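A common beginner's mistake is to predict each chain separately and then try to dock the pieces by hand. The better habit, illustrated here, is to supply every component at once so that their relative placement is modeled jointly.
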Amino acid sequence: MPYTSPVSDFRFLFDHVVDLARATETELYADATPDVIEAILTEAGKLCDEVVAPTRRAGDTHPAVLENGVVRTSPGFKEAYQQIAEGGWVAIAASPEHGGMGLPQAIATAVNDMLSAANLSLQLCPLLSQGQIDAIEAHGSDAQKALYLPKLISGEWTGTMNLTEPQAGSDVGAARAKAEPNGDGSYAVSGQKIYISWGDHDVAENVCHLVLARLPGAPEGTKGLSLFLVPKYIPDEDGTLGAANSLRVVSLEEKMGIHGSPTAVMEYDRATGWLVGAEGAGMKAMFTMMNNARLGVGAQGVGIAEGAYQHALAYAMDRKQGATASIVDHADVRRMLASMKADIFAARAITLACGTAIDMARATGERDWDARAALLTPIAKAFGTEVGMRVADDGVQVHGGMGFIEETGAAQYLRDVRVTAIYEGTNGIQAMDLVARKMMDGGEAAFALLDEIEEVAETARATLPDLATPVWQATETLREAVEWLVAESNMNARFAGSVPFLMAFARVLGSYYHLRAAMAEPEGSRARLARFYITRLLPEHAGLIAHARSGAEDLFAITPDDLAA
Amino acid sequence: MPYTSPVSDFRFLFDHVVDLARATETELYADATPDVIEAILTEAGKLCDEVVAPTRRAGDTHPAVLENGVVRTSPGFKEAYQQIAEGGWVAIAASPEHGGMGLPQAIATAVNDMLSAANLSLQLCPLLSQGQIDAIEAHGSDAQKALYLPKLISGEWTGTMNLTEPQAGSDVGAARAKAEPNGDGSYAVSGQKIYISWGDHDVAENVCHLVLARLPGAPEGTKGLSLFLVPKYIPDEDGTLGAANSLRVVSLEEKMGIHGSPTAVMEYDRATGWLVGAEGAGMKAMFTMMNNARLGVGAQGVGIAEGAYQHALAYAMDRKQGATASIVDHADVRRMLASMKADIFAARAITLACGTAIDMARATGERDWDARAALLTPIAKAFGTEVGMRVADDGVQVHGGMGFIEETGAAQYLRDVRVTAIYEGTNGIQAMDLVARKMMDGGEAAFALLDEIEEVAETARATLPDLATPVWQATETLREAVEWLVAESNMNARFAGSVPFLMAFARVLGSYYHLRAAMAEPEGSRARLARFYITRLLPEHAGLIAHARSGAEDLFAITPDDLAA
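With all components supplied together, the output reads:
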């Protein structure tokens, strides 16, 4: 079932839904002309369709393996990765100073989306490099930038993130890995890290690990963590690779999905590393990496949803049954396909709006755009991956019995996408971030966004009242929930409904972007899809908000003994 | 992570929620005294915990294989199956006339639930035998009953259902398999059937296939289908096995889950079979088998949910993080666990209410009970399996990164349960059945159930107003939806929202059963869980009903071209 990158969807979203032009009219992105964007999207789409997508199934059926301490990746991965790298696609948003294209993050998000649809396991490799590039750009020394950035941006070297330890999952502050000064400016890094995606591989010549570890005498918790850059092979100043570092892959995990992505248990045994950023500022640097990666993971969810949707649609169009031309004429099959498409649009718009906000923040330096990006990041991550899971699940269902057979390929999307709701901070962690940290401004960023929605809905009332009115009303309901939230000082009361709150916020945001699409094409296909979404899916927000506003009392009244009863 | 059968939950549900006593007070079930029920549940629970559950992981890691035309099942399956059979657990509801225990279907449903939690792949084998026993009890000749029922009930032989052909999935009427009279009362059955669960194996000595096929000159469509009993080895009148029949396993499917259940492509090449029921009445007979199996599959979903819940709870109770005693103290983890438990209760109550309605129909012969059972069957199947999927998915999420690692065992629940939403009629087919066939009475059966709920809610208002009021209101909203539905003569308008309608119906039913539980224990653990469900999960019904009542126009306005755009 060939995958076709939805290039024109991205163009439409940029032009009519998320206003990318605001960013590309700034000096910073002056090179990103409409022609350039068109060319970038088209070329990326071609690469994904023709080079990357054909490797997807092999990643599943021939997982990466560890042989004599060396990781061998799935058939075709090395060649496809090299074409990604040679085309300059690893980090198109990276700074031109070190070889990047300096394109808007919104465009990079679109490319990540397409690459993920084509092969999630493989795309994870450049996504991690992107995060590492961001971290080094923001926190690395000039020498580190000069040495590492060109190699990472070109894809000759790849990056990893090393946070998790066996005893410390989401609670990163419990990490025990150690770093001791060697006296020559380098450090000896020791410890075990788990869930290291692309911890080792054969698709590029070097692997650069960013490792959180504790210096001697460092305090407990996250404040005692520093960040170290630990390369697999130690480069000289020119980037020529020297000795192998003292680190190894202990084992690869056998996972539910993304079999093509080698997930390593890494062991560092006085491995040579260099401090990135200040001592004790490791979490801060890591957050730079993670925030970007969170938007990237949201785009992974959307990409997988797109792949699963196309796969299911092609099957349904081809499948005859009874008197119908195809099963697409069955109401329930059409409902599933329309829901899938409508949700993909909503989730994709949120990721691109988040990317655009990042671009606006970079281009204008305005704090409001920073706040907008910060607000949208957890929503983009959690809703993008939630949509990825739902759509992949519906994709299996559209296939009927065939969906459960591995050869069909539908199940792989569902197994692969499952991890996206877990890594880079579980979706529960995203929701906590949204209702706590992202509401520390008293809801200012949220209210600004809700004001924008209501303003657009007011405008749309004249021409599309049946769509504009429910969007406006849902936004008011959401506003009341935000007001409740910021007034609630008991954090557990916020947390107890945080996931439903995030999902309600995403539902409403999705209706806003659908409304904008309908305004751009009031008689077209996009207005019909918007009508479906607003009539059938948006009403979900009310139940979610009721849940979100329930507080914590009834929840904590259910004791652990009750749960075990 | 050991599984413990929730025996006391079943006792509570029978006694306080679904009124099984009404059935056991009838003459038909007079033997099912409270002591007998207690003993049955306890013994079944022990078997599941000690014998069956330990084989679950091996089914996943060592799938059934086809070797030289013979299926070899997973390690430990044969021994566990034999203990199931020897204990008389294959078909406890089967008629005592042929060796069954004649127990209520509600009890059989509880046992199916526990067996599924312990090992879904293995449980599927006796579940199929149960369906075959029902079909032969209802439609077989006296000779067929005398020959086959004792062997199937004892588990010495097992049963399969052969409906699906490669070109005919849910559209069974397109089946092409043929049967020609041999002149001696037997028939030569030829054709290929796919997705035949337990189509061959080594856990019992014979496999009896019920095969839908067409007699010469039979009309097109479902009316031309007759049902044939085609044994793997042809028995003589005493049940002694003779020659191998002319049938074979072409291949086994590689599936997303239930690896321990051999899913065969079967080839019949003039295999000897015997007509069950009248010529052309194959679908009718098959529906007897399927209706029972549908309730059974609903119980599978609930069982898997229970297994996944226990697995996640044990992990969460044990997992320390940060300053908390365990991650159960994190609000979002507790929310997930409470949702899982509350949904399991709701779905389980629906399956047991359905079983009880079947028992009442059998015991009293009253048509109202038949109608109640018919109404509840698609809800029990679709909601039971939906809850199975959601809970297994949350179970993975509670585990965090560990959930995605196969060794943990959480992912197996999710992969295994996925098929239950597809087989025995996809959940979309169940929803169509609910809004069409099950509403052909003008909504009478539905209204009778809603009347019952409102009556109980009225009674509860005095003591539990905060629970009774929303249940009553939700029931009214559902009543309006049923009224809308039965007045809607355009079937596509019903079908377009049929799945959301079914889920809304289940949500409301779940709140009813939770309310009854709270009434029985107003200060206890069950009331706290009911409060959680009614406050947080029940509000979902409103959005679902809005979706259900949207009609078909906006849906079919989205053309196949729009979907492909």
